[in-house]
Specification:
By secondary structure, the protein is of the alpha/beta class. It has helices spanning about 40-45, 60, 65-70, 85-95, 180-185, 195-205, 230-235, 255-265, 285-290, 295-305, 320-335, and strands spanning about 5-10, 20-25, 30, 50, 75-85, 110-115, 120-130, 135, 140, 145-150, 155-160, 165-175, 175-180, 210-215, 225-230, 240, 245-250, 270-275, 310. The strands form four sheets. Strands 1, 2, 3, 4, 5, 6, 7, 8 and 9 form a nine-stranded mixed sheet that branches. A six-stranded mixed sheet has the order 10-11-12-17-18-19. It binds zinc ion.
Length: about 325
């Protein structure tokens, strides 16, 4: 079944940053940043399976309590990902409340918190409602190429940017989809059956075209080959749809190191959600606060070759002039 991302900003660009990505066919959602989330309905919040927190400034994390309150009593494991320090932050949030009555809840809510530090180490800890959210540390591992979430259908990669403190930027990527033409398989006299699984996984693993794939013929295939070359099958019966990519970047200075990392992370993304906090005439203020200007955001989008640019996280000093920020970014994005 084809997957489909449906991304939407949680708030107006002048309010707390946040991106809600509904994974339509999986009946769940991912949430990037956890500031003011009061505009998300309980139904939407309950769809969230994983939350990606860029850093621990209040406008990116103060919504934890609302998420906790909404999910409490549900049978659910919530993944929380963030920079070094997020395990402690979640521990402190949870330890701020009394849990003496939690045994009376039907479902067990568990937080599985993972932090990625600047050296690429992944630490995780779990907090289970059944044990009154007491912290249990897991073994430390290493992130391969910044991967923090890896599932068969999607993955999320993070990179560490500088905002005076480490901030994570995230790329959500859908794996390439292999679509098999049923009618073509049948027209060849083959059965649409379990052998196709083998064919798909060989394709995804990039196996050599000469690899022989055992096939099943509809008529038993007594006088036909028991296996066909991968390359031939690929040409005849399938189409690959490359996966979509959505990137989320907020709170970072326009430094050489950040520029390089953002461009690499956002390369050819379908959508880039990026802060455009200041107008470029105020670039000195932006540098001092370690934020991007709208023009800088647009230039980054252009250099990364993204298809679509969406700006957010506008400074309140421009309230009423949001169009100017959006326009400045789009102009730099589309400039030749
Ligand atoms: Zn911020």
């Amino acid at each position: 079944m084809p997957r489909h991302f449906d991304p939407a900003l949680v708030n107006d660009p002048f309010d707390d940053p946040g991106l809600y990505v509904d994974l339509v066919f999986e009946k769940r959602a991912l949430l990037f940043d956890l500031g003011d989330i009061s505009r998300l309905s309980a139904r939407k919040l309950l769809r969230v399976s994983d939350v990606f927190v860029t850093h621990l400034h209040m406008d990116h994390f103060a919504g934890f309590d609302q998420l906790l309150r909404c999910a409490l009593g549900r049978e659910k494991t919530l993944g929380v990902y963030g920079p070094a320090g997020i395990i402690n932050a979640v521990e402190h949030k949870l330890s701020a409340y009394s849990w003496n009555l939690i045994d009376g809840y039907d479902g067990n809510l568990t937080f599985l918190v993972t932090e990625l530090d600047e050296l690429g180490r992944l630490k995780s800890a779990r907090f289970s409602g059944r044990s009154r959210f007491e912290r249990r540390d897991d073994d430390e591992t290493r992130a391969i190429e910044g991967l923090v979430l890896k599932e068969p259908g999607i993955q999320v990669r993070a990179t560490t940017l500088d905002h005076g403190l480490p901030v994570l930027a995230f790329a959500l990527e859908e794996r390439a989809q292999i679509n098999v033409w049923r009618n073509k398989v049948e027209a060849m006299g083959l059965v649409v059956g379990p052998w196709l699984r083998n064919f798909k996984s060989a394709t995804l693993q990039g196996a050599n075209d000469a690899t022989l794939i055992p096939v099943t013929w509809r008529d038993g295939g007594d006088d036909r080959p028991a296996a066909l070359p991968l390359g031939f099958l690929k040409k005849e019966i399938m189409q690959i749809t490359s996966g979509r990519k959505i990137v989320y970047v907020v709170d970072c200075a326009y430094t050489d190191a950040n520029i390089e990392k953002i461009i690499r992370l956002a390369e050819r993304a379908d959508m880039l959600f990026i802060e455009a906090t200041f107008l470029d005439v105020d670039f000195e203020a932006a540098a001092k606060r370690r934020h991007l200007t709208a023009r800088q955001a647009g230039m980054l989008a252009r250099r990364a070759g993204v298809k679509r640019l969406v700006t957010l996280h506008y400074s309140p000093r421009y309230r009423g002039q949001g169009e100017r920020l959006a326009q400045e970014a789009q102009e730099a994005f589309l400039a030749r």
